Amino acid sequence: MKKRASRIAYNSRMYRVSIPPLLLQPLVENAIRHGIGNRIEGGTVKLTTFETEGEYWFVIEDSGVGIESEQLSRLPASGSDRRQGVGLLNINKRLRHEYGMDLRMYGYASRRTEIGGN
């Protein structure tokens, strides 16, 4: 049986930050499905929130298999391939519309993947 763990680290000042519904949920789902979902030993998905220099950050990390930078650049959030899942593309559109910024994704092959935004 696969073991799964999750952790949430938050700054209490972040309670006042309002974000649109279903903005983080698809990202956490992707971290589970593509990051740790196929690992026999399971893994960890971590959501961290913090404020720095007037920007609010929501970072989702997983301890999964990681992703190559080249593969990461082809994900739909960049708008490069709209035939694949639309979740990242929709999140990016919502971030641009609501906040004037883009989703930022960082991949580390064989280590972890971070997805976050401010």
TrEMBL record:
Pfam families in alphabetical order: HATPase_c (PF02518)
Annotated SUPFAM superfamilies: ATPase domain of HSP90 chaperone/DNA topoisomerase II/histidine kinase
Source organism, top-level taxon: Bacteria
InterPro entries (alphabetical): Bact_2-comp_sensor_kinase (IPR050640), HATPase_C_sf (IPR036890), HATPase_dom (IPR003594)
Domain named Histidine kinase/HSP90-like ATPase: residues: 23-105
Protein name per the record: Histidine kinase/HSP90-like ATPase domain-containing protein
